[in-house]
Recover the amino acids of this structure.
C-alpha cells in the first residue's frame, strides 16, 4: 500500500486544503502527518517544539511519515520540514509527489507569517526565505511534479496537480 499522491511544500502553501480537494475529486481518503502527530501526541506541533525542541519533533515526524506512507493509499500531505530527513526522501522515491510552491509574498498573504509557526517566531519574512533556501532543492528532489500556487485558488491548484500527475477525477 502506498499513497496515490503525496503533497510536499512549505508551511501555509495549502497542502491541507488542496489535499482534501484532491481526495474528494479522486474519491479517496485524505491524511496529513501533522494531524497524525497532533492526535498521537495530544498537543500542538508548536507545543512539541517549545517543550522538546525541533530534533525531538523531527523524530516524531519521521515515525508519523513512515506509518502514513506504509498505511495510507489516498492523498497524503507531509509537514513542511519532513523532506529534511534523508530517510524520508528515500522513502518518497518512486512515489507520486507533488511539490506545491509559492514565493515569500504569497506566504505573507496566506499565513501572515505569524508566531503560531514555531520556526517563524522572530523576523518571519527573513526566516521564511532562509527556510526556503534550505528546503527548495529538497522539495524539488523528491517531486515528480511542481505546481505553483501563487495567485491561484485551491480549485485551480487541485486541477493543476491532477493534470501534472495525469490522474483523472473519480
Amino acid at each position: 500500500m502506498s499513497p496515490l499522491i503525496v503533497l510536499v511544500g512549505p508551511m501555509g502553501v495549502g497542502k491541507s486544503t488542496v489535499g482534501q480537494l484532491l481526495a474528494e475529486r479522486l474519491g479517496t481518503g485524505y491524511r496529513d502527518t501533522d494531524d497524525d502527530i497532533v492526535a498521537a501526541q495530544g498537543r500542538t506541533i508548536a507545543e512539541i517544539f517549545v517543550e522538546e525542541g525541533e530534533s525531538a519533533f523531527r523524530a516524531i515526524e519521521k515515525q508519523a511519515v513512515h506509518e502514513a506512507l506504509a498505511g495510507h493509499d489516498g492523498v497524503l500531505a507531509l509537514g513542511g520540514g519532513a523532506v529534511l530527513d534523508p530517510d524520508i526522501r528515500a522513502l518518497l522515491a518512486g512515489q507520486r509527489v507533488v511539490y506545491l510552491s509559492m514565493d515569500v509574498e504569497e506566504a505573507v498573504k496566506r499565513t501572515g507569517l505569524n508566531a503560531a509557526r514555531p520556526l517563524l517566531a522572530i523576523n518571519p519574512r527573513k526566516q521564511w526565505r532562509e527556510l526556503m533556501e534550505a528546503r527548495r532543492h529538497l522539495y524539488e528532489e523528491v517531486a515528480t511534479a511542481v505546481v505553483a500556487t501563487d495567485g491561484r485558488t485551491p480549485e485551480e491548484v487541485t486541477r493543476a496537480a491532477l493534470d501534472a500527475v495525469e490522474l483523472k477525477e473519480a
Remarks:
- The helical segments are 15-26, 33-41, 45-52, 54-71, 86-92, 104-111, 124-142, 154-164.
- The chain is about 55% helix and 10% strand.
- The first helix runs from residue 15 to 26.
- The chain has a mean pLDDT of 88.
